[in-house]
């Protein structure tokens, strides 16, 4: 190995982020979806509503896509420049499924950290959000899982995560309160212990008026 290649190997580190899950059975999911619809008085085999014939299959495929958790490499690099200010990636669009009603919640994530010895490829912050969002979730747990992975992989001086989302389980049913948003946060290390650092991070995650 050349000295240049050896240096790249020394600086870059990859850790595979996975989500072990049982195999999918789309045929069984389709049959269950058809039975679910019939139980609600909707017969997908009714000749009077031919457009419903493929709905059970479409429903199974839609949830298969929504709940397909992507694996990825969390790539970090040595902080050779000794950068010691906040790194924040904001407005990361995400969608997830409420574990209580299996209805979507959709929003944006703001993810940041105070580097120590290592920094991360910026796209990996967005991939981290997507990885944990692609499963039946609560927004509170999702927020903490993102922060946990950053702490585990980077060992930074601080981590901040803010999520804002609209939950269709509240806007389309139940309270039926359209336009409401839920905000959750998780602050770790320096961003939790020092009010000025916390305030700086929160200021960077606020929408910018154009």
From TrEMBL:
Q: Which SUPFAM superfamilies match?
A: Tetrahydrobiopterin biosynthesis enzymes-like (SSF55620)
Q: Which reaction does it catalyse?
A: GTP + H2O = 7,8-dihydroneopterin 3'-triphosphate + formate + H(+)
Write the Enzyme Commission number(s) for this entry: 3.5.4.16
Q: Record's superkingdom?
A: Bacteria
This protein's UniProt keywords: GTP-binding, Hydrolase, Metal-binding, Nucleotide-binding, One-carbon metabolism, Zinc
Q: State the residue spans of region: Disordered.
A: 1-25
Q: Name one GO molecular function term.
A: zinc ion binding
Domain named GTP cyclohydrolase I: residues: 30-205
| GO CC term (a single one) | cytoplasm
Please name the GO terms of the biological process aspect recorded for this protein, alphabetically: one-carbon metabolic process; tetrahydrobiopterin biosynthetic process; tetrahydrofolate biosynthetic process
Signal sequence bounds: none
Q: In which pathway does it act?
A: Cofactor biosynthesis; 7,8-dihydroneopterin triphosphate biosynthesis; 7,8-dihydroneopterin triphosphate from GTP: step 1/1
Annotated positions binding Zn(2+): 98, 101, 169
EC top class, as a word = hydrolase
Q: How does it assemble?
A: Homopolymer.
Q: Which family does it belong to?
A: Belongs to the GTP cyclohydrolase I family.
What is the name attached to this protein's record? GTP cyclohydrolase 1
Its taxonomic path starts at: Bacteria, Bacillati, Actinomycetota, Actinomycetes, Propionibacteriales
The gene designation is folE
């Amino acid at each position: 190995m050349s000295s240049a290649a050896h240096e790249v190997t020394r600086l870059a580190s990859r850790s595979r982020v996975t989500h072990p899950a049982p195999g999918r059975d789309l045929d069984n999911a389709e049959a269950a979806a058809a039975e679910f619809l019939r139980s609600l008085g909707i017969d997908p085999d009714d000749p009077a509503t031919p457009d419903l014939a493929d709905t059970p299959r479409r429903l199974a495929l839609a949830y298969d896509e929504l709940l397909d958790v992507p694996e990825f490499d969390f790539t970090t690099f040595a902080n050779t420049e000794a950068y010691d200010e906040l790194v924040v990636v904001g407005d990361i669009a995400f969608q997830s499924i409420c574990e209580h009603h299996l209805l979507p919640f959709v929003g944006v994530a703001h993810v940041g950290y105070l580097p120590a010895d290592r920094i991360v490829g910026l796209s990996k912050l967005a991939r981290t959000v997507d990885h944990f969002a692609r499963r039946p979730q609560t927004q509170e747990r999702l927020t903490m899982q993102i922060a946990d992975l950053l702490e585990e992989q980077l060992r930074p001086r601080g981590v901040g995560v803010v999520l804002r989302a609209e939950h269709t389980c509240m806007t389309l049913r139940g309270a039926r309160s359209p336009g409401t948003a839920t905000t959750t946060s998780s602050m770790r290390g320096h961003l939790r212990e020092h009010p000025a650092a916390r305030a700086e991070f929160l200021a960077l995650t606020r929408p910018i008026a154009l």
